[in-house]
Amino acid sequence: MTSEITLFVNPTAGRGRGARAARPAASALRAAGFSVRTVLGTDAEDALARARAAVAEGTGALIAVGGDGLANLALQAVVGTGTPLGLVAVGTGNDFARALGMPLREPAAAGRMIADALKCGRVRDVDLGRVGDRWFGTVLASGFDSRVNDRGNRMRLPAGRFKYDLAMIAELAAFRPFPYRITLDGGGVREVEATLVAVGNGSSYGGGMRICPGADLTDGLLDVTVVGDCGRGTLLRVFPTVYRGTHVEHPKVTVFRAASVELAAEGITGYADGEPVGPLPLTARCVRAAVRVVGP
């Protein structure tokens, strides 16, 4: 493996933590003997083009410095290439880094761990989900939570996460279950009234909410968590248990496993790794060993 590696940096991640985190991460990598170049983009499309160019030129690894949005963008650049992906997680959610066991918001420690792993050849292949031509590492979300995202993305003010809290309150006021048609592995069809349906390659989204607590990055399957037609009060009681993953014990929650999942529902957008991928119907597939990652 070449000793030149590429830092793929989002300068706006975590209210500027991305730009600040790049320096200690780069220092740790250089101290370990690596030559480090940095890739920035003027927007997501430009950043992805630059990351793909670095991979095509033979960089030894692509190290994404940011949050889940940048990690997802980096996946699009490295998937299927054999180029290892490392994560310096300094965003708000950091769910893919959490699934890989990387340090969170500790850029120097992440840099040292990545350097040690690269030197020791400690890389592994993990599964990814795929929707059309879009890859995702953690969760494809739909239903109540995606409606909150839709509303929050339409709001210009207030800034930051607070607008999503307000969006959640507004969606709760208009809360209703949605009629879903769920098809597993092209065969088993289930028509259900559901509050939300989450398809997990990884276990968590939203900064540690373990919506698919049994998801395994190496089993070749997606976990499908269906929260049924619970009322507003039940939803509010169940919601806090998502952080522990114990919501799956509630009688209104059902979990399936499948290699491919089609979700159909009217007026619902799917979000993968927190990024919008389009309106339902959408089909997600698990692709075994789709990407090589660096980590513990």
Automatic annotation (TrEMBL):
Keywords: ATP-binding, Kinase, Lipid biosynthesis, Lipid metabolism, Magnesium, Metal-binding, Nucleotide-binding, Phospholipid biosynthesis, Phospholipid metabolism, Transferase. Its EC number is 2.7.1.107. InterPro entries: ATP-NAD_kinase_N, Diacylglycerol/lipid_kinase, Diacylglycerol_kinase_cat_dom, Lipid_Phosphate_FormReg, NAD/diacylglycerol_kinase_sf, YegS/DAGK_C. It comes from the Bacteria. GO terms for cellular component: plasma membrane. Pfam families: DAGK_cat, YegS_C. GO terms for biological process: phospholipid biosynthetic process. One of its GO terms (molecular function) is ATP binding. Residues 1-135 form the DAGKc domain. Belongs to the diacylglycerol/lipid kinase family. Gene3D superfamilies: 2.60.200.40, Probable inorganic polyphosphate/atp-NAD kinase, domain 1 (3.40.50.10330). Its cofactor is Mg(2+). This is Diacylglycerol kinase (ATP).
